[in-house]
Structure formats: structure tokens, C-alpha cells
UniProtKB/TrEMBL annotation:
MF terms (GO), sorted A to Z: serine-type endopeptidase activity
Transmembrane helix is among the record's keywords: no
Boundaries of every Peptidase S1 domain copy: 29-255
Name of the molecule in the record: Granzyme A
Top-level taxon of the source organism: Eukaryota
Alphabetical GO biological process terms: positive regulation of apoptotic process; proteolysis
Signal peptide segment: 1-26
Keywords in alphabetical order: Disulfide bond, Hydrolase, Protease, Serine protease, Signal
InterPro entries per UniProt: Peptidase_S1_PA, Peptidase_S1_PA_chymotrypsin, Peptidase_S1A, Trypsin_dom, TRYPSIN_HIS, TRYPSIN_SER
């Protein structure tokens, strides 16, 4: 039984981008374009055994995916644009505590959410800011336009992460087709707590290294990047919807840790 790969990626890989040249790989996110530096101030780069992303939701808290491995003393970098070198506005934190959702199931991906408590308070700067959680856990309707950013691979089947933050526009797809034989075929089951989104022909998608990246609609945090088949139009990216249940867990966990 073949399970879609998770969108995390080993660290230590970086490409040199040459102006005017479109490289075979290494720019992050399938399709899309490079984000102007610090345009997405809430983005958190997580560098450990693998690269993941997340979003700063409180001064000491980042929300990411539960399948992102927090072994090996990972660092959370706020204000990052490049994955290749330290930058002027970087704020680097250790993780005081990693708290995966109690119902996370690595086989079904249910509850693929994780809170990271930083070992210090993030300073709000031109490069770092908080992404507000949604007020309700309403669903996202089919055909809704969203965007997702990350430092993951730009080409399916190519194992290199991005040298800079990139972003793609993607469209939410109808759940009526998500589990049919031409798509995920119940392997795993795509349920109502998951958003199913990508480009119509796989031209825009999240990819390896993008795990934990926030899915945004009208500047509202709607989901967290979980898994997919990286540019495959039959198996586009799956995002954990920030439902009422998950929002309640997030707020309760943060309140209990203060």
C-alpha cells in the first residue's frame, strides 16, 4: 500500500540561483513565484533533521504539522527568506516544548497539527509578525482561491529544497471527488477535517519541505499543509482544516502552558 509522501525534507541542501536562469529545481513550491523578502512575516522556517515550515500565532508559539520530526534539536527561524545563509532580521529559537495534537494518527493523518513553544518571545519587526487564527472553524468551499508559501522542492521527484521562500495560488477542490478511484481512493481517507487543494493540472502545489505551511484565504489562516503527491493532479496537497475542534485545542493548550 503506497502512502503519499509527507511534505518534510532533509536539511543541508541549497541551490545557487543565477539571475535570468530558471534552474531545474530548488526554488520551493510547485509553480508560483518567489515571495518578496518579509512579505509573509508570519512564516517560520523549521530546520532540524528535516525542513518544515509553520506560522507564528503567538509571541512564543508556532503552529505546524504533527508529522514534522522535532528530534535532533531543531531551530525555528523567524524573519527568514533564504535557507542558505543567516540574514539581518533572523530570529532563531530553540523549541521549549513540542505538542502534537493528541489524536494525531500517522497512518490516516488525522489531527496532523503540532504546537511549538519557543524558548523565548519573538520580537515583532518588519520581518516577523503574528498570523491570526480564524474566529470560527468554518469549512472552505470548493473553488475558493487560496495561497500557500514554503521552502520546499519546486519539481516533483526532485530532492532539493528551495533557497528562498516561494508562494503558489491554489484552488480548493470538491470533496465529492477526493476519495474516488482517480484520486486518493480512500488511501488514506480524505475526511471533512481536511482541505483538498491544488492546481487543476498539478501546475501549482505544495511539495517536499513545505509541511506545516499555512494555507491562507483573504489573509485568514485556514489550514496547515499535511501531505500529497507533489504536483500530481490526481493527488494534490491535503491541508488540515482549522476546525472548531482544532481551534479549541490550540487555545486551550496555549492557555494551559502560560
Amino acid at each position: 500500500m503506497k502512502i503519499p509522501f509527507l511534505f518534510s525534507f532533509p536539511t543541508g541542501m541549497c541551490l545557487l540561483l543565477i539571475p535570468g536562469v530558471f534552474p531545474v529545481s530548488g526554488e520551493g513550491i510547485i509553480g508560483g513565484k518567489e515571495v518578496p523578502p518579509h512579505r509573509r512575516r508570519y512564516m517560520a522556517l523549521i530546520k532540524g533533521l528535516k525542513v518544515c515550515a509553520g506560522a507564528l500565532i503567538k509571541e512564543k508559539w508556532v503552529l505546524t504539522a504533527a508529522h514534522c520530526d522535532m528530534k535532533g534539536n531543531p531551530r525555528v527561524i523567524l524573519g527568514a527568506h533564504s535557507t542558505c545563509h543567516k540574514e539581518k532580521y533572523d530570529q532563531v529559537f530553540s523549541i521549549k516544548k513540542a505538542i502534537p495534537h493528541p489524536c494525531f494518527n500517522p497512518q490516516t493523518f488525522e489531527g496532523d497539527l503540532q504546537l511549538l513553544q519557543l524558548d523565548g518571545k519573538a520580537a515583532m519587526t518588519k520581518a516577523a509578525g503574528i498570523l491570526q487564527l480564524p474566529e470560527t472553524g468554518d469549512d472552505v468551499k470548493p473553488h475558493t482561491k487560496c495561497h500557500v508559501a514554503g521552502w520546499g522542492s519546486t519539481k516533483k521527484d526532485v530532492c532539493k529544497i528551495s533557497s528562498a521562500l516561494r508562494e503558489a495560488n491554489i484552488t480548493v477542490m470538491d470533496r465529492k471527488i477526493r476519495n474516488d478511484a482517480q484520486h486518493y481512493n480512500f488511501n488514506p481517507v480524505i475526511d471533512l477535517s481536511m482541505i483538498y487543494a491544488g492546481g487543476r493540472k498539478g501546475e501549482d502545489d505544495s511539495c517536499e519541505g513545505d509541511s506545516g505551511s499555512p494555507l491562507i484565504r483573504d489573509n485568514v489562516f485556514r489550514g496547515v499543509t499535511s501531505f500529497g503527491k507533489c504536483g500530481n493532479p490526481q493527488k494534490p496537497g491535503i491541508y488540515m482544516l482549522l476546525t472548531k475542534k482544532y481551534l479549541k485545542w490550540i487555545k486551550k493548550t496555549i492557555a494551559g502552558a502560560i
